Amino acid sequence: MAEGAEGGAASKGGGGSKLVPILLIVNLLLVAAVLGLFLMKGRAGAGGGGGHAEGDEKHVEGKPGEHGKEASLAPGPTTRLADFVVHLRNPDSDRYARLSFEIEVATEEDKNRLAGFTPRVRDGFIAYLSDRTFEELRGSEAITRTKQALEQRLAEMAPGVAVRGVYVTDLVIQ
Questions:
Q1: What whole-number distance in Å separates Cα of residue 153 and Cα of residue 159?
Q2: Is the dihedral of CA 109, 84, 168, 56 positive or negative?
Q3: Which of 4, 81, 83, 128 is paired with 23 by a 20 to 30 Å CA distance?
């Protein structure tokens, strides 16, 4: 009889050990469901109209049906500018820089509009770059500052073109 009591205890313990993984799975599913609802609600609020600032639309222009981050992460059309070779402003020595740029725009229409401004853009880029020194173009922070300055110039030189980014695709300084 003592053996039966131990067997009963063992079977109860065995049943309890099966209950713990089941409870863990149910718990995990509930947490996943709550997290899923939370994410869906947040995504609907971000892309469901109303609630985003006017500046956010800059990245979505010309892409019907896309909203928020998904649209801004999708690459837009790019235009490659011919290489630039400029004499840098260094009083001590003659230094030259060869740079290549690609300009990302929001739509194909913006790409076509930008093509009409190419001479103006090249002139503005050359004027800006030839006024830089070796030190002002050296390093990642300098490149970031240069790209930001060129983006601002682009806005002035090519009005009405939605520029998403300026990318340096080649840089050699001699």
A1: 10
A2: negative
A3: 4
Mark whether 115 and 166 lie in a shared domain: yes
* Residue 89 shares a structural domain with residue 105: yes
Total number of domains constituting the chain: 2
pLDDT-derived band at 53, boundaries 50, 70, 90: very low
Residues 162, 57, 152, CA angle at the centre, nearest 5°?
A: 35
pTM: 0.58
> CA 115 to CA 34: how far, in whole Å?
50
Q: Tell me which of 17, 45, 72 is where a domain ends.
A: 72
19 and 100 within one domain: no
Residues 119 and 156 in one domain: yes
- Alpha-carbon torsion angle 43, 45, 51, 54, nearest 10: 20
